[in-house]
Design a protein that fits this description.
With 111 residues, the chain is of the alpha+beta class. 41% of the residues lie in helices and 16% in strands.
Length: 111
């Protein structure tokens, strides 16, 4: 990933880490961001990933929910394979404002 994508995913990860009940699945140490892609998967202890994805879609934000065909990874992480995770992908064409808008929508979806 590029330095800019690392900045985007770092902002997303920092914002998600500040939300109670959220668990990020993957590298969250900023010193290791070069080892990850700018796609972030998370779960919430009280909200189903599909609920979060639908709430974000209603806000015009496209994300994925489910196991994303990574069943062995989901099983290894002991995540309910029927529910899976919420998966947010950042790319070079996204902006920091879009990350902030996404985080605000995630917050609303968890309320």
């Amino acid at each position: 990933s590029t330095q800019y994508e690392r900045q985007l995913s770092g902002r997303l990860i920092d914002g998600l880490r500040g939300l109670p009940g959220v668990t990020i699945h993957g590298i969250v140490n900023s010193n290791r961001f070069a080892e990850r892609v700018p796609t972030v998967s998370f779960t919430h202890q009280g909200r189903d990933p599909e609920h979060v994805a639908k709430a974000l879609a209603a806000d015009g934000i496209c994300v994925w929910s489910g196991h994303n065909y990574a069943l062995e990874v989901v099983r290894h992480l002991q995540i309910d394979e029927g529910a899976g995770v919420v998966r947010i992908g950042m790319a070079h064409y996204n902006t920091l404002d879009e990350v902030d808008r996404t985080l605000a929508a995630v917050r609303r979806s968890l309320a």
